[in-house]
Amino acid sequence: MTMVIGGASAASLAAALTEAAQDIDEALDQLLPVVEGDEARLFEAMRYSTIGGGKRMRGFLVLEGAKQFGVSRSAALRVASAIEMMHAYSLIHDDLPAMDNDDLRRGKPTSHKAFDEATAILAGDSLQCHAFTVLADEATHPDPAVRIELVRMLARAAGPRGMCGGQMLDIMAEQAAEPLDEPAIGRLQLLKTGKLIEFSAEAGAVLGKAAAAQRHALAAYGRDLGAAFQIADDLLDATASTEAMGKATAKDADAGKATLVGLLGIERARMQAERLVAQARDHIEIFGERADLLRALADYVIERRS
């Protein structure tokens, strides 16, 4: 019997995720071309960490959000590619010796191991810049106001009040004399992980010039989905093998990282993730059956094994 998750079968979600990942990789291949000359090594490093591998969940959110408003697949793929570039940049820098000092990412050597630290830093910087170049291009949307809004949203989600700010809080938490409480951990994870996922969920509504209520619904869905995703990731770090994850596991506890799993324990953290998923599903009721894959994705986030 085919298992059904949130109105869409697990098989249909898996097929949609696979198709999205293939389409995004094809778009990235075009947006990050192989070049010759002095910049070739930089482009090689950018492509190494961006094309192939990863679940493309953020890009998938863009595509599914855009689908709610009849946005063209080509436009949505450009925004999906931009968020995947931004995500790849964050992973490159997160893996550096000055940050988490990881040797393995997506089942292969991290960028600074495959190339060198300087090249990895430049590849991350270049991916961040190129993400904004893609968003600002007329090919993404004919209306400059839409392009400006996408640039503003992504800059805010990735900057000091978003991902970078969350990373700073994460570093400070490791050095703190007292462990963070639940609200502080929730804010850290909202900034570090949740803001980019929130952007991904809302971006399709921006492309489609959706009404404020629809934008807010997708943004709220993204916030709760991002929080659940981070808890699920921390649960996998505590319980899954390195082989299953394609990266080192059991590092959070060893490094003294602030996580809800460490604070609440595995069972209570899992219950919190389930509550967040239920909230995420409620936010998108206004879209009816069109959002079945988004509901299925919310359930998948806490059921995944890698």
From TrEMBL:
The keyword Lyase does not apply. Keywords: Isoprene biosynthesis, Magnesium, Metal-binding, Transferase. The keyword Magnesium applies. Pfam families: polyprenyl_synt. Its cofactor is Mg(2+). PROSITE patterns: POLYPRENYL_SYNTHASE_1 (PS00723), POLYPRENYL_SYNTHASE_2 (PS00444). It comes from the Bacteria. InterPro entries: Isoprenoid_synthase_dom_sf (IPR008949), Polyprenyl_synt (IPR000092), Polyprenyl_synt_CS (IPR033749), Prenyl_diphosphate_synthase (IPR053378). PANTHER family: FARNESYL DIPHOSPHATE SYNTHASE. Belongs to the FPP/GGPP synthase family. This is Polyprenyl synthetase family protein. It comes from Sediminicoccus rosea. The lineage of its organism: Bacteria, Pseudomonadati, Pseudomonadota, Alphaproteobacteria, Acetobacterales.
